[in-house]
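User: For a benchmark we're assembling, each entry needs the component sequences followed by a predicted structure for the full assembly. Here are entry 17's components. Please fill in the structure.
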Amino acid sequence: MILRDFFDIEAVKLDLEGETKDEVLKELIGLLGLDDKSEGILFKMLKRRENLGSTGIGNGIAIPHCRSLVVNRLRLAFGRKPDGVDFKAIDDRPVRDFFLIVAPPLEVSNQYLPVLGKIAQFAKEPDVPEQLGQLETPEDFLALLEAKSI
Amino acid sequence: MDAQLEILLQIQDLKGQRRGLEEGRSERQVEEEAFNLRVDEALTGLDEKIDQVMEELDPGVRRRYDRLAGGIDRAVVPVINGVCYGCFVSVATSVASDPAERAKLRNCDHCGRFLYFLD
Ligand SMILES: [Zn+2]
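Assistant: Structure for entry 17:
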């Protein structure tokens, strides 16, 4: 299992426009191409997870995640907001890089937790924030995942 | 999508998250270690949220939901490729192929679970 295989190029956006936590969450959800109702349900669920504790894990990176019935397989998205937004992160710093992870509640392939764990591990590597900052195209993002062979 | 169905999906999502945190040892571990989540507090928070969202159900839907949820693990299930993922029996094509029918609140003719349609 390598992370690269879980990302569609359409679900990578390097110039997020949202200025608030909610706006960024909505924009990330929008990358998955779901219908409006499903987007609304997913937003509520992600917000509820954030209310339990921020998924901003420090170093300018957040990993909003949840299980939801509105997806039928594991879905991932990556977004970058160059100036960052306040995400109530653990280190109180603004968040610039966002990995969105959504999986159905009963997921036959059981990939959700390994993927969540891998991304969390990736995000904590010291050189990753700088490398994410240097990305110029969505293809660069996928290439970075490949280069890291995670 | 029917408004009551939307609420049912929210309830089921919350319960799914709760179940993952409570029963899934690795899920608890990832949430605690990678995200510093206080899982016991989170479970209490989820319980409160579930109760709150349940209040939004119409009494008739609530009764039906309670009856179902009391006897089976999942009271709301997807229909994928025309098949109910609660009992794996096909849903009538006239329903599965009609967007207006798919958006309604309905139960599986075979197992009684609430259905929502996924492509
Ligand atoms: Zn059924």
